[in-house]
Amino acid sequence: METTWDKLRPVVFALCLHALVIGLLVMGVLWQPPPAAANAEGPMIEATLVSFPEPAINVIKQETARDTPTLPRPEEPKTPGLVPQQHVALQASHPKPDTMDDDHDRRIAEHAARENLQDQRAQLTHNDPPAETAATHPPIGNSGDDMAGLLERYRAALHTTANVNWDPAGVPSGVHCMVRFTQIPGGEVIAVNYEDCPLDATARESIERAMHKGSMPYAGFESVFSRQATIDFCTPEEACTDGAP
Q1: Percentage of residues in the chain with pLDDT exceeding 90?
Q2: What is the three-class DSSP state of 182?
Q3: What is the CATH classification number for the domain harbouring 192?
Q4: What's the order of all strands across the beta sheet hosting 177-184?
Q5: CA nearest neighbour of 183 among 152, 221, 149
Q6: How much is the pLDDT for 47?
Q7: For residue 178, what are the β-bridge partners?
């Protein structure tokens, strides 16, 4: 009859064998000797110091001096009583002939450019049309007349416009109604006030409708425009001329 040990014995042997192999591998890695360092030492080099003979050194110096070009020494200032610094300042204050020529040419070019610019300006001024004077084109609305005449025409235009827009039906004849109104530039009436007007409410309402029906005259009368003006409403015209206030 097969016992338990008989069953486990192959397994135990296999484990022991594997453990032995692994142990040998580890010991082989740990016991590996380090690589030998490369020997950097080499054979010694022998050198002998040889002194250069003195005659040969002199020959080399002479050949070097002969091959080297000799630079001329700067001339000393010939002006008596001046040190080198003063001589340099004197040269700076007196420019070279080439520099003087360049400055002269530059001044000539600038002068020519200024003359050319002046000629162009004179030509443009000559070609411009003459300025239009006030006598040639009088202000709009006065036709060349004086301001008093323009003001009279303006008042007449206001009176005519108001009476054309007014419907005097039912208004007593020969009754004068003085109305002072306020307007803005353009002729639009914004307020109507009665100064001396014996008319009833119905007649006054007709006057207000006339004042707001259209704009008062403005174009051509800008110079004499007045924000406030007075108009005499009366009908008919022939009955109001003699009794006008």
Answers
A1: 35
A2: strand
A3: 3.30.1150.10
A4: 188-196, 177-184, 228-233
A5: 221
A6: 60
A7: 196, 232
Q: How many domains does the chain have?
A: 1
Q: 115 phi and psi, to 5 degrees? A: -65, -40
Which residue in the block uniquely carries the two structure tokens 């007449």? 156
pLDDT at 124: 62
Task: Return the pLDDT at 241.
Answer: 75
Where b means 16+ CB within 10 Å and e means fewer, 143-171 reads eeeeeeebeebbbeebeebbbebbebeeb
231 lies in some domain: yes
Q: Cα separation of 203 and 199, whole Å?
A: 6
Range of the domain at 178: 147-240
CA 94 to chain CA centroid, Å, is 46
Question: Which positions of the chain have pLDDT values less than 70?
Answer: 1-2, 32-101, 123-145, 242-245
